[in-house]
Amino acid sequence: MSEILKLLKKHRLELKLKQSELGSKLGLPQSHISKIEQGATDPRLSTVTDMARLLNQELVLVPREMLPLIKSLISGEDAQKPMWAIDEEDEQ
User: Fold this and answer.
1) pTM, whole model, 2 decimals?
2) How far apart are CA 28 and CA 37, in angstroms?
């Protein structure tokens, strides 16, 4: 969860949104947003989901076996060779 909260804080800062502004939109005091971002409190999943959506992000659950593929799609790196790729020895 801490990685998610770090990313949400990063996006909040990129949007130049103050903790108090985010808190106001969530109906929470600035001090609670601060505690969430610091990891001093364990927020409800619904709070984290609402924070993400207000920061133009979306939380998505994916099957664990799909993680390598999802991460490669996000990073733009190939985690697997496509089935249609030419084998290197065939290129000669």
Assistant:
1) 0.71
2) 13
